[in-house]
Structures are given as C-alpha cells and as structure tokens.
Design a protein that fits this description.
Layout (H helix, E strand, L loop, with lengths): L42 H25 L5 H7 L3 H14 L3 H22 L4 H23 L5 H13 L5 H25 L5 H13 L2 H18 L3 H20 L10 H26 L7 H27 L5 H4 L3 H5 L1 H16 L12 H25 L4 H11 L8 E3 L2 E2 L2
Antiparallel strand pairs: 1-2
Helix pairs in contact: 1-3, 1-4, 1-12, 1-15, 1-16, 3-16, 4-6, 4-10, 5-6, 5-17, 6-10, 7-10, 8-9, 11-12
Length: 430
C-alpha cells in the first residue's frame, strides 16, 4: 500500500452547475458565514494538488521499482552500491514518501466539503450526486488498477469516500479528533489485524514474480487481478490503508469546514509561525527515522515507525503551510502557481503517469525493471511531471477541464458540460 497517492482528486466540481441544480429560492446572504458556499475556484487547492502529484510521481518511479516489484536481490544490491542511487532514494523517501499521499488524501476530503457546500446551497441532492461521482471514480480506478497501473488508489478513494459521505453529519470537532486518530494509528491497526489473521505478502510477491516471468499482458492482468482482489478484500488488506485514507479525508473536510484556506491571508502571521514549528520538527523526526532505517543510527523497527508516523504528516502539513504562505506573497505567488495547471487535471495526470510507469517497467512494455536505477528513475519522474505541466497549460488554454475530468463531471451530473472555452464573446466552440 506504499503505492500512494493519491490523490486529492476530490475537487469541488460544482461550480457552473447544470440548470437542474440551480438554487430554488435560497438567499445565500442569509446563510451563516460558515455555511455559505465557496463560489470561486480556489487556486491554493490546485497548487497543493499539483505539488502532491510531483511527490506521487517521484515515489512511484524511484521507490516502487526497487522495493515493490519483482526485482531480484542481486540487482537491488548492485543499485544500492552507487551513491547517485542512494541520493535519489533519499530524496524520494525523505521529501515525498507518505507526505505526497497525505496531501493527496487530505485534498480529497477538502474537495468533498467544497462540493457539499456548493450543492447544499443549491438545494441539490448532494448524496445522490456524490454517490454517482464516487461510482464513476470507482470505475475509472478499477480499469486503471487492472489494466494499467498496479498501484492505483482511485478505486480505494472511491470506496472510502462512501464512508466519508456517511459521516458528513458529524460535528466538526468529532471529524478532527477521529481524523487525527485514524491518520496516526489507522495503518498500524491494519497491520496488527493482518498479522493476527496470518496474512503474509509472500504469496503476493510470488504470484507477481511468476506473472513477470510469463511476460504476457492478459496473463499478468488475470493473475494479479485475482491476487489484488484476494489481498485487499478477502484478506482485509484494505483495512489499514482504508483507515489511513479516511483519517486524512476527515481532516481535509474539517479544514474546509472551518474555512482555513479562505482565511489564510488574514491569518498569515499565524500560518508562518506554525510553519516554522511543524516543518523543522517533522523533518528532524523523519530524518531520524530514515537514518535508523538505513542503519546509520541505532534504533529498532518500533522507533523507526513511530518517528515516521509523526514526521511524515508534520512535513506534509509544513509543505501545505509553505505553499499557502507563498500563494499570499506578491513575490512568490506567480512562481508557485505553476503547480496549478497540472493540479487542475490531476485525475488525467495520475492515470497517464501510471500508464507511462507500466510502459517503462512492465515485461509487456519496455521491461526496464532492473535496467534503469533510481537516479535515472528520478529524472524520468521529473521529466514526466514537466511534460504534463506543459500539456496542462496548453490544454487548459482551450478547454475547461482535463479529458478525464470532463468525463467525470459529465457522469456526476448526468448532463454534458461545456468543454471548450469561449473563443469570442458571441460563440462557444463545439
């Protein structure tokens, strides 16, 4: 489940609603400020989503081929003898591992609450619309999981999103407390349950090794599809990861419920003070954990895990505070806004990165597993991110949504939305 990400794809897509969801006699000015909907797109969320995607790309391309695919021990040891590969792994593990997926999942919860506010203000049936949204995401995720990318989290986000939907009436304080508890302890709880049930990853990796040796696409899909389903659903493998995700969903919903992003400019001094606390503390804890893992410092697995459990979310919070702070800066705002275009097509970018990953590393693609090491994989991840950023800039100059975002919105609301942007004041491109 270290194939993280994700992402954060829960963008509030309820602006420019079809007529059937228009407000029926609701005066928004009469709503209390905490209940008034967010009516404009929030640049900070796109920036955070784009930054989270960068981390997802790096973790998947650098760490996953080395640790989570069927790479033989001799090749792995040979890679680890080179300094440049160690540096690439350090960058991935220290800066992004479980920080990117924390941001991604928290953003999903934030998008959930933005959409809830907008649709509720329009007297729309939020539960039905959001259930369709999750159903569409589940379908996209299952196709991506079985056919393109073995580390897909979209289907998991969709399933856990149903739990978030059921908990939307919770008090804000309850959301925060339960969210923090699950974010910290959800994954260890799941690990203990798996250990108590006698579940082991050995059968999974043996099946993966055989599927790689056979090297045929549909054989791989059949073998690994069955193994993934058995591990995640029949053997409760999704439990720990699901609790981990749900905790971050709840925290994200709480953040938007309390309108912290909208109040960022007014609270900028507090944001910066908190930034200078959580980011250094998180970095120290994460560095300590990583050095124990690398056997540079003494310690054990329990101390390593505890430090990482604290350090990773603190660093993710620090990243978020840093980016939000920079978004309020006249000097830096235009720079960090370069994260926004790919953040606006996050679903499309996530699926495309998985396709490229499979093309490069899988035996029915270029079969480069064990051929290219972590340092080159890091460069590939950065190059892919830059390419998708350029693609997003040009695409969004002509279209309102990314390709998959457009289909997702269409399925969510049941009406085909306008796709092209206006070319002039008098017409809309077909």
């Amino acid at each position: 489940m270290a194939l993280a990400c994700g992402q954060a794809l829960g963008r509030g897509l309820a602006s420019n609603l079809p007529p059937r969801y228009a407000v029926r006699g609701r005066n928004l000015q009469s709503l209390p400020i905490s209940a008034q909907p967010i009516t404009q797109r929030i640049d900070e969320l796109d920036v955070l989503r784009g930054a989270a995607l960068l981390g997802v790309f790096v973790v998947h391309f650098v760490g996953v081929p080395l640790y989570e695919l069927s790479l033989d021990e001799a090749t792995r040891d040979a890679f680890l003898e080179r300094l440049d590969h160690h540096i690439a792994l350090f960058i991935s593990d220290f800066f992004f591992q479980n920080k990117a997926n924390t941001l991604f999942a928290t953003l999903f919860g934030m998008g959930f609450w933005v959409m809830l506010q907008r649709l509720t203000a329009r007297d729309a049936d939020f539960a039905a619309i959001y259930a369709r949204r999750l159903g569409t995401l589940l379908l996209i995720g299952l196709v991506n999981w079985f056919l393109f990318f073995p580390g897909d989290v979209l289907h998991e986000y969709a399933l856990i999103g149903l739990v978030l939907l059921a908990l939307r009436q919770w008090r804000a304080k309850t959301m925060l407390i339960v969210g923090i508890a699950l974010a910290l302890f959800g994954s260890p709880i799941g690990s203990h349950v798996s250990a108590a049930l006698g579940i082991s990853d050995e059968a999974f990796y043996e099946t993966q090794r055989l599927a790689f040796e056979l090297g045929e696409f549909w054989t791989y899909v059949r073998m690994m599809g069955g193994m993934y389903s058995e591990r995640d659903f029949l053997q409760a493998g999704l439990l720990g990861w699901g609790l981990y995700i749900l905790g971050r969903f709840l925290i994200g919903a709480w953040v938007m419920r309390e309108r912290w992003i909208e109040r960022a400019r007014d609270m900028l001094p507090q944001v910066r003070r908190l930034l200078w606390i959580v980011l250094p503390v998180g970095a120290i804890a994460e560095l300590w954990s990583l050095l124990i893992f690398m056997e540079v410092l003494p310690g054990g697995e329990m101390l390593d895990g505890a430090l990482h459990m604290i350090g990773a979310p603190l660093m993710a919070l620090g990243y978020a505070l840093l980016l939000i702070s920079l978004c309020q800066s006249v000097t830096w705002r235009n720079t960090v806004l370069w994260f926004a275009p790919v953040g606006r097509i996050a679903l499309t970018a996530y699926v495309l990165h998985g396709m490229v990953f499979t093309l490069i590393f899988m035996p029915f693609g270029l079969d480069a597993l064990g051929v290219i090491g972590p340092s080159l994989c890091l460069l590939l991840a950065l190059a892919l991110y830059i390419a998708l950023t350029v693609f997003a800039v040009f695409w969004l100059a002509k279209f309102r949504y990314g390709p998959l975002e457009y289909l997702w919105r269409w399925a969510t609301y049941g009406q085909r939305p306008a796709f092209r942007k206006l070319r002039d004041s008098g017409s809309t491109a077909a």
